[in-house]
Amino acid sequence: MNTTPSTPSTPSIPRRRRRTLASAAFVTALAAAGVGLGAPSATAGTVSVGYTCTGPGAPDGVQSLQVTVTAPASVPQGGTAELALEVTTELRVPLNVPAHSVTGDMTLELGGAASGSVTATGFTNPASIPSGSTVTLTGGTASAQLDTAGTATFTPGEAAVHVFGVTVACTVSGTAPVAATTEVTGA
To answer: pTM for the full model?
Structure first.
């Protein structure tokens, strides 16, 4: 005869079902926290744009700038695309440039399902630039209201650089390529 005491049986959830329930709880917690797993990601594109610049100390001829535009992959019709920009010149500075002493702004031409233009501001050099180095300006931002469904395009346009109290104005030489796109989804 078996004298082992019996234990009450507890309901058991199969391991596979526990993982499914845990995954569902995790996704629910993320959604409640505002983290969208299906949220559109940002897209970034870097293009080379030729510019002719005028003003004190402006270089002669066409200068190439590398322009990076980061845009949301999609926005709903009537929404706003928050854009981030970074610009790097191929020119090398002849002297040390202190942090935050260079600022700039750039127009972005809207195309495709959008029209008009927006101006990105807030560019600066966050760190000092040693003599002989190229200049990268980061922190440029712009907002574009997108009212028509379809693909909106963002193309670099006119730019201005402000350094040591001097402004150098630059216009696109030739045709600038599209740097980024956003899909505007219909209602």
So the answer is: 0.76
